[in-house]
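Subject: for your reference before the review

Hello V.,

The reviewers asked for a structural picture of the protein, and I figured it would be easier to keep everything in one thread rather than splitting it across files. Below is the amino acid sequence we used in the manuscript, unchanged from the supplementary table.
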Amino acid sequence: MPRSGRCTTFASPPWRLTAAAKAFRRYEAQQFLLRGDGDVNSAAYAVGYQSPQQFNRDYKTLFDTTPDRSTRAQRNAIYANRA
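And here is what came back from the structure prediction:
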């Protein structure tokens, strides 16, 4: 047992939970944008971000592109497949 007296065997590191929650929110925002429910700022606020700038930075970290470019590229791919 650790010196603190608490068992840490089943403890989950908090940064993993936070990272998973942030990734989930970014995927939800991506779906929001693809459905055309609003712009990037609306998507950021809809999934719980307080700052659209922070949302843009986090989105780019996960998807390697900005939300606007990602949405445009995915919509173009969908329309190209329909033709």
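For the response letter, the relevant points are probably these. The radius of gyration is 18 Å. Residues 36-83 form one domain.

Happy to draft the paragraph if you're swamped.

O.
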